[in-house]
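Hi,

Apologies if this is the wrong queue. I'm a grad student, and the batch job for DNA-binding response regulator from Streptomyces virginiae produced an output file that my downstream script rejects. I'm not sure whether the problem is my script or the file. Here is the sequence I used:
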Amino acid sequence: MSTPAIPARILVVDDDPTVAEVVTGYLRRAGHTVGHAADGHAALALAATDVPDLVVLDLMLPGIDGLEVCRRLRAERSVPVIMLTARGTEDDRIAGLELGADDYVTKPFSPRELVLRVESVLRRSRPGAESGEGQERRGPLRAAGIVVDPANRRASKDGQELALTLREFDLLAHFMARPGRPHSREELMRDVWGWEFGDLSTVTVHVRRLRAKIEVDPAAPLLIQTVWGVGYRFEAGAGGPQS
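Support response: The file is valid. Your script probably expects a header line. Output copied below for reference.
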């Protein structure tokens, strides 16, 4: 397994000792520094004292469950989160995504696949990371009072910093680099998430979260418009004088 260009500090949170041992072992062999917590309380304590670059978080935990741990982590900082879950229902996956999880892997899973997902998220989380085709070579993107700086992974609206998750930032940058163009959910999953296939509700949830942060009225979006039967389109000239 190749060593990552920039090793990261990763916190694995799982109460199953076998799963934890396998996951931490693979991540360490990939060159990362890995800590482990077996419950939600320990995870929050470790994250507070030694802020990780990424958290691999099991949904089912004793004491504080993974959803609540994710909620508290996201309230404190923008650390990327990949959720592990044995639950297969769409509601559980959506709940994690709504709380700001950047990715999820359903048990049973391939440890090698998890390492690839971790490294994909880490690459996109670092300043100067690629956020869609060619965007690493662009200057700041501007539209409707929104400024996105792909090189430094910062975004603002009307001069106020936007608190975006990793995937929300990538999605906004992708839209703004291609104004007026319709995008299917399958295309967004491929180009923003880097997945050739997957649960398309992931895209739907992230669009909804992004609208809540950039639209004047998320229930009647002007910037990220739904193209019925196709997907979504970013209207750079929308938003009116309020933008």
